[in-house]
């Protein structure tokens, strides 16, 4: 017996000696190489790791961990913080396997972090040409990575898909995903990996792009398949039967293919391994105004739709169009969740979806059949959906007069992830309204710059004038707990502003969400009672993840204010650099220093001719409003508001507008698009607006 015991002790000691040190290259290789479809499915039972962007293939963002729970969450404290060294939007959820974290920052920079210590393992900068930052509508953001068999996959802002060695960060392969260089395509979404294929979509519908998704072999980078979301030039052969069918729903008189058609699949991609289907959410029309792109009407497939594709071949299987003939930038690219629910006494495999248009959808994911839809915020473009799943539209919403679209193009729900807790039966949804008035353009020409045509100097093509008539609807932001079976709100939490972060829910009866005003909050998932909060130094737009490391539960959130709304507006006086915060019970690490937002006070002292203000207004809308907001009215986001910069800056505005010092940070060069005389008029508008709002 002594001999046997001694032998077991020696064997166990030898085994321990052979185990790699946690956080070592050998350990990282072992745990990341093990990530595949089987391990992701196995992790669903425990939630010990967070191996994919939405936690599991269903993208529920529901963790079964309950070490941190509604009874003890008040003891949550900071364990470590990590600097992302970024000043623009941070939208990615941390991906974590056995304490090895992968996080992206703005400009598609990837960070590998030891979650046990908060120390950097490596970083990878794809070296984007930052002078091309203006080619994206919505900040130079990235929504995260995919992990598969020892590789980290990241979609890069300039259209590349890159596979990195998970241990070293070195490039394993790189592919240019763009079909042409004439249009302003970008990638901001997270890739997904299914069955050994990396699937990625692109953005760019505001600029006249044609949407598509592409699958690449995860090992080699070779293209496996590609599916376009809208038809191309009808004078040329269609790529497949689905494109031929779609073309029948577009009016060729609008020559939609010149302006791309839109439909870009810039975010949500979800997978059902049992059905072997990939689900794609498609984007808005290009231009937004259907009367321009398809004058005689039509549904314009497959805009604003959920589409199911065969995961192996990319072949179209079914679609459900949430906004037929999209006219309001009502994308369906918002994150979807797969769930098994009992509806009217019948078990159903469903997709839960809350797109921009303000309705919460439940759709059968086996066949795309409509089950139900109910508005989760007030809407004014439709009164509901009929039994066939078509919206009952309000006639005025497609009229020729200015329309205060509710929700506006920012959406009742944008890209910010929602989560589903099967224990409560509730979906936790960041909801909002950001007022925008749409006035149809009287004449439209692709890529034509014109005074008052929003962001046209940067290449936008909308078919609408924005806020030519001031909107009247109220702005709001809230967290909504939604019952998808009853199609009814269970509870809500109101916020001071829109553009709040994504959600995480857990078996500890908790919901976590970051806010636009710089807090990270935990709620009781059943009742909505606020249980804990902490300041995080900046507005939050991303969603958190949670995971176990050495038998202890952690919660991590990446903070960095930005996105299309956060470029120009904010709800906090802080503007701290991008940071990952990690919390656990009884954590007591000191927070990093918070940085106060810098302003120079309301602009004064610029001499101008009041006669120039009107023309300056139109020029400002054309070139500046997209990023800088309204001078003095908005307060600036991650780009400064020109009503609160120094007098010297505005006096020397031409030195910034023409190949200026911020050109390599993404600011457009307006050489050839504006004249020095135009700049003088813009100066008049900036100072005139500041004077108009100055307290008497």
From TrEMBL:
Molecular function terms, GO-annotated: calcium ion binding; electron transfer activity; heme binding; oxidoreductase activity, acting on CH-OH group of donors
Stored InterPro entries: Cyt_c-like_dom, Cyt_c-like_dom_sf, PQQ_b-propeller_rpt, PQQ_MeOH/EtOH_DH, PQQ_rpt_dom, Quinoprotein_ADH-like_sf, Quinoprotein_DH_CS
EC number: 1.1.2.-
Cofactor: pyrroloquinoline quinone; Ca(2+); heme c
Keyword Signal among UniProt keywords: yes
Binding site for heme c: 624, 627-628, 667
Residues spanning the signal sequence: 1-17
Residues in Cytochrome c domain copies: 611-690
EC category name: oxidoreductase
PROSITE patterns assigned to the protein according to its UniProt record, in alphabetical order: BACTERIAL_PQQ_2, CYTC
Similarity-based family: Belongs to the bacterial PQQ dehydrogenase family.
Protein name as it appears in the record: PQQ-dependent dehydrogenase, methanol/ethanol family
Source organism per UniProt: Bradyrhizobium australiense
